[in-house]
Amino acid sequence: MIDKKVAFIYSDTYLSYDYGPSHPLKMIRLKLTYELLKSFNIFDSPDVNLIEPVPASEETVMLVHREEYINALKEANEGVYSSDLFRYGLGWGDNPVFRGVYSGSLLSTGASIQAVRLVGNNKVQTAFNIAGGLHHAMPERASGFCYINDPAVAVAEVVNKGKRVVYVDIDAHHGDGVQHVFYRTDRVLTISLHESGDFLFPGTGKPAEIGEEKGRGYSVNIPFYPDTGDDVFLWAFEEIVPPLIKAFNPDILVTQLGADALEGDPLTHMRLTNNAFCRAVEIFRSLDYPWVALGGGGYNVLNVARAWALAFGIMCGVELPDEFPSSFKEYALEKRLNFSDILTLRDKPSEVQSNDKARSIAASSVEYIRRNVFPIHGL
């Protein structure tokens, strides 16, 4: 029984935008999440709204991004590279040029805008855009697989209506683009929990990055040492995140639920199980704010689908069974995905205890935030 109206924004059109066979970001993870939830019949409830995304307008995107960069993305949309695109971070490394790069980015961003409008207009309590959470794009360039910073655009949309937002990012990579956009305002509180930039892209997100000018005390960072497990992650999360959210008391809570901090992700070095991931999601729900959830990183596609399916179940107040439905197993096997190491939807409880270095790094970050940020918020 679902006790609050929720929205899930999704389209198979997302699969049309392909970074290329050698790129780690695979759009199939979105389809897998949708198929897994469908196999649990979660979309059959009258309180679950399955919504087709609508592309963002250029005007809305330019709340964050510069016109010359948007023009470069338009040029790249046909999948043809020119040397002029290099200055905008396009066409090499993390951010290849491919057909539909601009239109696909507008679609995923539009879904995040739909989410904040649905929640802001009290149509639903919670909205989840799994294609969103592309948090590295900067106003003038692409970065880290991200072309348009949909979280920043969605948050800017809310702020432009005179409302206040808490943005919490649990991706293994620092939410640098969102922090950058709102670093000098007190209308948005950004909180990022991530693997330390000493070991992982983008190299930022130190505890001392707490904002400037009016924004001093409104950027919060908790970097974790490699191999950090559930115990230390959840301790730091619970010490910092709920108190700051309650003190700020936002009109809307926006969370980026990247699943790349889970053990087994090929690009990161954290050792979380999806039990810790789910505990964080449960805490977000328990705070009872109008809530927009976005996707984010995650490069082990079955881990991503499991985590996001569990997250949406929590948003709906539904405990999903632990066994995979046969229809999903058939679909995954058809896509040549190997289930041999994954027996259940939920991970086994972690037997990993974070090492002393991980505990020390987390404790130092928590203490820094308590000393330098909490007083600004009356804590």
User: Main sheet?
Assistant: 8 strands, parallel
SS strand fraction = 5-15%
| Helix content class | 25-40%
**Topology pattern, helix = H, strand = E:** EHEHHHEHEHEEHEHEHHH
Strand order across the biggest sheet? 2-1-3-8-7-4-5-6
- Uncertain segments of ≥5 residues (pLDDT<50)? none
The shape is globular
Radius of gyration: 19 Å
Terminus-to-terminus distance = 37 Å
Helix count from the secondary structure assignment: 11
Mean pLDDT: 95
What is the total tally of β strands? 8
Q: Please identify the structural class as seen in this structure.
A: alpha/beta
Structural key phrases:
alpha/beta; 8 strands; globular; 379 residues; eight-stranded parallel beta sheet
Describe the structure.
- The protein is of the alpha/beta class and 379 residues long.
- It has eleven helices and eight strands.
- The protein has helices at 28-39, 58-61, 67-76, 101-120, 150-159, 176-181, 230-248, 274-286, 301-316, 326-334, 356-372, and strands at residues 6-9, 48-51, 126-129, 165-169, 188-195, 219-224, 252-256, 291-294.
- The chain has an eight-stranded parallel sheet with strand order 2-1-3-8-7-4-5-6, sandwiched between helices.
- Helix 4 packs parallel to helix 5.
- The model has no long low-confidence stretch (mean pLDDT 95).
Give the structure's gist in a few sentences.
This protein has 379 residues and is an alpha/beta fold.
